[in-house]
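Retry 2 of 3 after timeout on previous attempt. Resubmitting structure tokens to design endpoint.
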């Protein structure tokens, strides 16, 4: 069949006055073909209408296609069972031409970005050798869309805390931030909604605003919208993580920053320049960072335990021993655990990222050797009891022996009773308890209350007469008779 260009040339030669024989000789085609083109009078190629072998079975093919879960092999087998003489190749060609199970491919688009307009953030799971063990690692990457400058870090887990850390470090690495921060509807940022209806959590919205940006999310299922940050993940997996082993997560992130510097400075055949060269034009368009970028931290409230430690994520960090029992504010940063007593820092330790049940001790937080030996003399509570009420010194000594050890809790409870109740009632109750060897302070308090009831609340044995009603204007008839008698 003659193509459209040959048909157009035949028509042009005919318009110039050339005969059929001359045109056929010049175009090297048959005279019948020239006559056919001249008869049609157009250069359009006619469609070939051929009978298709599968056309009579179209309805059966559509029915079986759904029943067989879109498996054309099973469709061909079912047709054969029904006696249909049709090859598998003819069936697939028929389905392809009539778009049965074959959606037409749409042309891929291209997103164009202005300098400083947008940066994209996403995470991807990888595996990395950390400390000689193959660990699951969450790779968090940030890419500037215009220059495609890349920054990424790795963490054993990824939460809102790590998200703030990597975005802060990325903005510091870029020297600024883009207007829009595109995310993949990640739960650590999103409060509700998806795509253009996404509402970020107030905490994350305030964080982005402080650095000069705002979070946006692409529509659900539109993965191509975040292709700038999705593409480097395969390169990170097959290049950065290939053949590399790290001593710790800190070592891995240091190497990741060095690798980013190398990749960003390398020439890209796709970009026809290096990312650093394109970034030179984009840097001026970035939003400047504030003069002070606060360090990202997470706050915990902890009471210093009896051993002088605070616990964060099943790891214990030492605190000066004189603060035992005090409520501390613990700030967890990327690398450290910082303990505050009010506005003052009292302890700072390296943060244990992926180990549990560790004890991190600073020797300066422990008392000098021998300073914590138990005192041989009486405690402050015992001295106060003997000073206030010398008469119960014997009961105090017996109570201390009965409680065991130094008897601090029992002595504190008895001191509270001495301070709260009348002295005479307390002495009487203590004398009664001492005579019976009673050291249960709950029962001792009930004895005190019993004595107080006898001393302060006298219950009459006989009912008292009603008081006379001497008020003027009384309606009592007896009062009226008394007044008449007088």
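Retry 2 succeeded. Sequence:
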């Amino acid at each position: 069949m003659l193509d459209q260009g040959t048909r157009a040339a035949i028509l042009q030669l005919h318009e110039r006055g050339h005969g059929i024989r001359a045109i056929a000789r010049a175009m090297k085609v048959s005279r019948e073909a020239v006559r056919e083109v001249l008869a049609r009078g157009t250069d359009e190629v006619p469609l070939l209408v051929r009978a298709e072998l599968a056309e009579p079975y179209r309805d059966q093919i559509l029915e079986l296609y759904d029943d067989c879960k879109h498996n054309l092999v099973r469709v061909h087998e079912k047709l054969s069972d029904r006696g249909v003489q049709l090859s598998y190749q003819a069936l697939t060609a028929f389905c392809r031409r009539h778009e049965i199970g074959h959606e037409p491919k749409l042309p891929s688009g291209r997103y164009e970005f202005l300098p400083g307009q947008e940066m994209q953030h996403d995470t991807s799971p990888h595996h990395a050798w950390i400390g000689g063990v193959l660990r699951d690692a969450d790779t968090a990457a940030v890419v500037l869309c215009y220059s495609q400058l890349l920054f990424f870090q790795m963490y054993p887990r990824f939460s809102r805390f790590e998200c703030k850390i990597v975005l802060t470090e990325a903005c510091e690495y870029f020297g600024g931030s883009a207007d829009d921060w595109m995310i993949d509807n990640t739960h650590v940022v999103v409060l509700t909604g998806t795509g253009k209806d996404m509402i970020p959590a107030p905490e994350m919205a305030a964080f982005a605003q402080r650095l000069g940006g705002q979070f946006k999310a692409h529509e659900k299922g539109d993965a191509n919208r975040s292709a700038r940050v999705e593409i480097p993940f395969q390169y990170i997996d097959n290049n950065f993580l290939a053949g590399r082993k790290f001593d710790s997560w800190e070592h891995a992130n240091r190497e990741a920053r060095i690798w980013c510097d190398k990749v960003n400075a390398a020439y890209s055949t796709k970009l026809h320049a290096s990312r650093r060269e394109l970034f030179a034009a984009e840097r001026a368009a970035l939003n400047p960072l504030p003069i002070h970028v606060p360090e990202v931290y997470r706050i915990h409230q902890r009471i210093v335990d009896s051993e002088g430690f605070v616990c964060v994520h099943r790891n214990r960090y030492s605190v000066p021993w004189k603060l035992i029992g005090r409520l501390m504010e613990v700030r967890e940063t990327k690398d450290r655990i910082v303990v505050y007593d009010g506005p003052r820092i009292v302890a700072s330790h390296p943060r244990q990222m992926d180990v549990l049940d560790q004890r991190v001790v600073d020797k300066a937080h422990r008392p000098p050797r021998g300073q914590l030996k138990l005192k041989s003399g009486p405690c402050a509570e015992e001295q106060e009891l003997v000073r206030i009420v010398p008469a119960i010194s014997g009961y105090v000594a017996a109570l201390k022996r009965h409680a065991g050890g130094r008897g601090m809790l029992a002595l504190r409870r008895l001191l509270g009773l001495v301070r709260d109740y009348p002295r005479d009632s307390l002495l009487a109750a203590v004398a009664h308890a001492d005579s019976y060897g009673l050291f249960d302070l709950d029962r001792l308090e009930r004895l005190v209350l019993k004595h107080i009831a006898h001393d302060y609340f006298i219950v009459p044995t006989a009912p008292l007469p009603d008081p006379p009603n001497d008020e003027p204007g009384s309606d009592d008839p007896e009062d009226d008779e008394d007044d008449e008698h007088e």
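Attempt log closed. The chain is about 40% helix and 15% strand.
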